Description:
This protein is of the alpha+beta class. It is 14% helix and 33% strand. It has one helix spanning 2-18; strands at residues 34-38, 44-51, 73-76, 86-93, 98-105, 111-114, 120-122. A hairpin with a 4-residue loop joins β4 and β5.
Amino acid sequence: MKVEKALQILLLTALLITGGVLTGNTAEAGKQDFTIVNFSGKTIYHLYVSRSDHSNWEEDLLGRYDTIKHGDSKKITFSSREDGKFWDIKVVFKNGREWVWNGVDLETVYRIRIDGKGTAHYN
């Protein structure tokens, strides 16, 4: 009887933790989450992601002090409440040069690798 009760408590605890109840994190990851991998040969200083049907760029996701150096990657996460399938992505380098990719289907893409020619490779 004690073993059965202990197993029930263990199972309930596991369910609570994985469900986010104990961690306070009840929001699921957004279906548009992706990782950007920088193989451009340069450091990315600014990163913008905006819905394709919007005319303005959202805020810089790297903020004021973060960068993505050549060979590094950055996980971009969305709220689970975020909607929108197609997104535009812009990176800006130190010299102000911009590379933009329009209409990226972030519901199917989970990894974007940028090469030195400005081509984005999607997985």
